[in-house]
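Suppose you are handed only two things: the residues of a chain and a line of SMILES describing adenosine-5'-diphosphate. What would the bound structure be? This form records exactly that question and the answer produced for it, so the two can be stored side by side and reused later without any lookup.

QUESTION INPUTS
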Amino acid sequence: MIEVKHVWKKYNPGMKNEVVALKDISLNIERGEFVFISGPSGCGKSTLMHIIGCLDNPTRGEVYMDDVKVSSLNDGELSKIRRDKIGFVFQAFNLIPSLNAMENVMLPMILVATNKEELRNQAKTLLEAVGLGHRLKHKPNQLSGGEQQRVTIARAMLNDPEVILADEPTGELDSKTGEGILKLLKKVNKERGTTVVAVSHNMLTKKYCDRHLKLKDGKIVR
Ligand SMILES: Nc1ncnc2c1ncn2[C@@H]1O[C@H](COP(=O)(O)OP(=O)(O)O)[C@@H](O)[C@H]1O
Ligand SMILES: [Mg+2]
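ANSWER OUTPUT
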């Protein structure tokens, strides 16, 4: 489903502060797989997630998603792929403080949805699916860290994406709450067949993944 071919990423290429964040990464991810990527801080995990997630283009190399070469698309085309195929879950929750759980889940589609009532129902169903049916009208600061992360997972599922990209999804959570999030991602993976790529320091992720890759200094070492 996702093919990464000889990808290099340089930040500030040719400048004094050039950083080579990814060095000749090649990787295939099958539909329905749960892939876990670990590695020390600064090794390029988020950079790789951004490139797989069509948020950034590689400096060299190619990325294919469902046989579409996404590494050479323009911003408009990339944002369409993101909207149609990808759900993002980030460590820092990225919720809008002034919006409640329902509104946060609906936000990515609020401008494009033609049927607002259907969108509301969808958001409600997703929040129920992640165990937050009793917290629909709560704002982020009225929710625990684990609950906030559940809202981001519901939001990521809104378009029924083909792939969920989770960057340190348990990073700010205690271990029990973190495991709850991993179980939830696994549930989405199994029940909906959604491909999951999760970057984490949390070695518990091993228990839930199909494949564990280690990144070091911008290279896959295993
Ligand atoms: N926008 C940027 N500009 C310059 N350097 C960056 C940028 N983003 C990340 N880097 C550098 O690239 C390397 C990889 O970063 P990152 O992918 O965020 O690592 P990780 O997620 O594994 O901690 C780091 O050395 C980081 O400092
Ligand atoms: Mg990172």
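WHAT STANDS OUT: The chain is about 35% helix and 25% strand. The pocket of adenosine-5'-diphosphate (ligand 1) is lined by residues 11-12, 19, 21, 39, 41-47 (CB under 6 Å).
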